[in-house]
Amino acid sequence: MKESGDDMNKIIFEKKDKVYGFISDKHYKPMKLKDIMIVLSVPKQETALLKQILDILIEEGKIVKTQRGKYAMPEHMGLFPATFQGNQSGFGFAILEDAEAKDVFIPKDFVNGAMHKDTVLIKYTTPEAEGKRAEGEIVKILERGQSFIVGTFEESQNFGFVVPDDSKHAKDIYVSNKHKGKAMKGHKVVVEIIKYPENDKKPEGKIVEIIGHISDPTTDILAIVRQYEIPTEFPSEVEKFLENIPTEVDEKDKVSREDLRDVMMVTIDGEDAKDLDDAISLEKLENGNYRLGVHIADVTNYIKEDSPMDKEALKRGTSVYLVDRVIPMIPRKLSNGICSLNANVDRLALSCIMDVDNKGHVISHRISQALINIDRRMTYTNVKKILVDEDKEVIEEYKEFTGFFKLMEELAAVLRTRRTERGAIDFDFDEAKIILDDRGKAIDIKPYERNVATHIIEEFMLLANETIAEDYFWQDIPFLYRTHEDPAPEKIQKLNEFMHNFGYSMKGVSTKIHPKDIQKVLKEIEGKDEEPIISRLALRSMKQARYTASCEGHFGLAAKYYSHFTSPIRRYPDLQIHRIIKENINNELKANRIKKLRDIMPEVAKQCSITERRAEDAERDTEKLKKVEYMEDKIGEEFDGVISSITGWGMYIELPNTVEGLVHVNNMKDDYYNYDEKLHVFVGERTSNVYKMGEKVKVKLIGTDKIRKTIDFMIVDNK
User: Fold this and answer.
1) Are the CB atoms for 547 and 483 separated by under 8 Å?
2) How many CB atoms lie within 10 A of CB 492?
3) Other residues' Cβ atoms within 10 Å of the Cβ of residue 118
4) How, if at all, do strands 362-373 and 258-259 pair?
5) Superfamily of chain region 78-143
6) CB 317 within 8 Å of CB 329
7) For residue 455, what are the contacts with CB-CB under 8 A and spacing of at least 6?
């Protein structure tokens, strides 16, 4: 009886792991097909199947076949898998899969048809030496990273071409007349690659979407959304799923829940927030302790595992907050409706209720499936007016809550003191709020204010996240954690060497650094001229936080246990752990379920980390774009700024409104400047002028480029 296609695929999948495990074993020596058959006891009739599995592994880049017909791991042959990061000048870098390995420089002549984001195999051609990167050559393209690219359509007499928005693409994409559709010069388009580059030729493409014209202020943002392949429309399966979602809490869903509707609680968010997923209750107990309730929208009541909505939420991973729009993780019917903790309506919540002593320690806690009803929807601004400004009119409006907010402020101060004492690091860089007109054009940039109310909510959310993570770590239940690893020792060593020039140092960091070491320096430099430069370099020395299936601690927060529990409307990790918590509360975590959770957690963590990074990159790009747009009509104007960064190609200048631009070394015309990489300074050969990070300068705006998202300055107050 013949195996069906699905059955055969299952067999291949199961046997592939065994074959790869054998070849990847550290004791394995390269072998031919017949030798592998003997060692693995493969019957003769399965020769073709084994050959097929080996071919698949070769195609995936996991193994290679030598000229003598032996199968081996790529590294045995001096080959290494990597992701290619391109550059507009034609060269690029190989980002190796080993996170500890340094990037490898790929000269233009050794790119061999690879495009930005391709997965490749490389070989080293020149080892690392005297501070110079190792160099390599791409020997095989394993998988193309992008089949759709966003760019600007340009026309020639007999054909068209697309200039990619992402400057990491070195070549324009050729588009024949038959493949240009209705695209015209100046259109932002999505082009599908139909022929990848060979023998130094350009890639060829076909226009599949016209986003709009570059003169339309909304087109540029949508182009970034397309560039990062962020889904904007929900599939029909999700729309159908939404038809069964109620607008009010069903009576049957209220059964068996702890009724907390009589407990005073509020939400505190920004004025324009519509998806309210956290509420706070607080009281002072007779013994002097605080009883803090952090009540989070029970989104999992409406989004069941493996439902169309759940699969789409995992695919998106997070809501994306751009300058002119929010691309939600879940549809607004859920996020702004039944899941949003709106005031004066019954809502379902997962509540973490903590008793906290006057030193900020959680003495006890419990997690409850609750029924709540929010008393007031508060804003950060109004809470600040009550606590800081003592605005009589606002105090009168919320007079029954005034003591409540003062108690919040009191507890938040206790929690903040405890976090500071254990070494938590707080980088407080200015953030920008970009103001757009009705057409979507940037007309103003204002600093985003964090006030007493934002700090209160921040402290309460941090405490709940830590409490939940510690609870589930000790229960040894599969979970998702928020991990921030220790900085790389070499980066901390470089930071220490640099700080030494200003008279600061971190002792004993050659072995193991503690967050307190960095926190101590940040306190010492507070308010001093060198604060911006050292703070920025300290931040750049840190690793990026990510999601993991194991509890590895959070360096920046100086926390042994940390998770994301408080935002299930906009983050999938929170949604995932809510589901686990509820199953645990309801005694549904049987052996087979625990096994499934252990199997899927690493992939969920990886997907959530990837989508989080994608959202951050898109958010950063849209901000940069709108800042360039805001500066476009200011060419020739002069500004006061601060040197925020120094590189071999120039100095980045940050203005008080957070706009940042480059003074290219070619525009430093009063002298020839040498870059001192160790000290992060430029030194003039003739004048001995020194430019260093944190220094105040006056600059003139000499150019902007919306395509490249760049701003160019030149110094006007030469020393």
Assistant:
1) yes
2) 21
3) 22
4) parallel
5) Nucleic acid-binding proteins (2.40.50.140)
6) yes
7) 412, 416
Same fold, 5-74 and 635-715: no
Residue 532 identity: P
pLDDT digit string (tens) for 652-673?
999 989 899 999 999 998 899 9
Residues 6+ apart with CB under 8 A from 607: 314, 315, 317, 572
How many angstroms separate the CA atoms of 258 and 370, rounded? 5
Spatial CB neighbours of 550, under 8 Å, sequence gap ≥ 6 = 481, 483
Give CA–CA dist 153/145, Å, rounded.
21
d(CA 123, CA 136): 5
Cα of 460 vs its chain's centroid, Å: 23
What span, in angstroms and rounded, lies between the C-alpha atoms of 263 and 344? Answer: 12
Find the mean pLDDT for residues 529-551. 88
- Using alpha carbons, select from 340, 600, 292 the residue that is nearest to residue 467: 292
End-to-end Cα spacing for the chain: 87
Q: What is the pLDDT of residues 163-172, one digit of tens each?
A: 999 989 999 9
pTM, 2 dp:
0.87
- Phi then psi for residue 425, to 5 deg, are -100, 130
Domain boundaries 148-215, corresponding CATH code: 2.40.50.700
Residues 6+ apart with CB under 8 A from 479: 469, 472, 473, 549, 551, 563, 577, 580, 601
Checking DSSP bridges between strand 266-269 and strand 376-379, what pairing results, if any? parallel
Neighbours of 382 (CB within 10 A): 22
Q: How many C-beta atoms lie closer than 10 Å to residue 668's C-beta?
A: 19
Sheet holding 258-259, edge to edge: 258-259, 362-373, 346-356, 290-297, 278-284, 266-269, 376-379
Single out the residue of 263, 225, 350, 340 nearest to residue 621, CA to CA.
225
CA distances from 34 to 21, 24, 45, 628 (A): 18, 18, 13, 63
**Under a CB-based contact definition with an 8 Å cutoff, are residues 327 and 310 in contact?**
no
Close Cβ partners of 327 (under 8 Å, ≥ 6 residues apart): 225, 230, 231, 232, 316, 319, 320
Regarding the domain delimited by 635-715, which CATH topology (the fold level of the hierarchy) does it fall under? OB fold (Dihydrolipoamide Acetyltransferase, E2P) (2.40.50)
d(CA 479, CA 5): 35
Q: Are the C-beta atoms of residues 315 and 485 closer than 8 Å to each other?
A: no
Sign of CA dihedral 265, 269, 274, 276: negative
In the chain, domain spans: 5-74, 78-143, 148-215, 236-480+560-619, 635-715
CATH number for the region 5-74 comes to 1.10.10.10
Q: What are phi and psi of 446, to 5 degrees?
A: -125, 145
Q: Confidence class of residue 1 from pLDDT cuts 50, 70 and 90?
A: very low
CB 424 within 8 A of CB 519: yes
Q: How far apart are CA 331 and CA 203, in angstroms?
A: 37
Torsion of CA 700, 703, 705, 709, to 10 degrees: -20
Parallel/antiparallel/unpaired status of strands 173-176 and 159-164: antiparallel
